[in-house]
Amino acid sequence: MRTRSSVKLLLAGTFPLALSACGASQDTVAFNTKSNFKSVEECVAAKVPVEVCSDAFMQALADHRRIAPTYDDQASCDSDFVPGYCQITPDGKYMPKMGGFELAMSGDVPRKDLEQAQQQAAVQSGGGGNSGLLTGLLLGNLLSNSGGGGRYYSQPIYDSRDNRGTYTSSTLSRQIEQGKSFSRSTQARSSSSNTYTQATLGKSLGSGSGSVSSTVSRGGFGSQATARSGWGGKSSSFFSSGG
């Protein structure tokens, strides 16, 4: 009977990198990562293949036009986001500008490549460890592995202020999770609950499975991934394997 084992790597904001394992070694490690980018240029500068960055941006822009809250006046719109952030639409409504996009990717990488990436990250960081570099090395492996079954999706992000008055950029899904209702938006006022909910976003975004869902290895991405194996932006990552 095969012994169950797990490997988890967690990177979120300023939290330290943690790795835990138990039991016998498994062949692959599941990879999930999310990063926010203000533009395609910032995404490419983070060593993500330009085709992925461009596709993610365009799909996020299409979703933005479909799901962004709209308001009858600029003051109501700005109150949900940041002052001067909203712009008028062709039909006379106000809506927030898209502040960038969240790019999420997932797939499987061989355990041996995880170990190799850890060694490379340690060497290149002078032995001190570098979680961002490790994430990038694993992402490069995912993109270059045509059989890895990797997938990615994107969502638009918006500048706003949280309950403490801190400026931040996040998806509408995240803002709703944190308690925002966008009650002055036309979508909220036309709903039975007078709130803008996950259901308003639609099943794809609200469920966290995004509207962009493509095999990462398509279109020859793998040929560029080796040279573009870095990763940047604001990110969170999770790796696991089990039997």
From TrEMBL:
<feature type="signal peptide">
    <location>
        <begin position="1"/>
        <end position="20"/>
    </location>
</feature>
<dbReference type="InterPro" id="IPR009576">
    <property type="entry name" value="Biofilm_formation_YgiB"/>
</dbReference>
<protein>
    <submittedName>
        <fullName>DUF1190 domain-containing protein</fullName>
    </submittedName>
</protein>
<keyword id="KW-0732">Signal</keyword>
<dbReference type="Pfam" id="PF06693">
    <property type="entry name" value="DUF1190"/>
</dbReference>
<feature type="compositionally biased region" description="Polar residues">
    <location>
        <begin position="165"/>
        <end position="180"/>
    </location>
</feature>
<feature type="compositionally biased region" description="Low complexity">
    <location>
        <begin position="234"/>
        <end position="243"/>
    </location>
</feature>
<feature type="compositionally biased region" description="Low complexity">
    <location>
        <begin position="181"/>
        <end position="193"/>
    </location>
</feature>
<feature type="compositionally biased region" description="Low complexity">
    <location>
        <begin position="202"/>
        <end position="218"/>
    </location>
</feature>
<feature type="region of interest" description="Disordered">
    <location>
        <begin position="153"/>
        <end position="243"/>
    </location>
</feature>
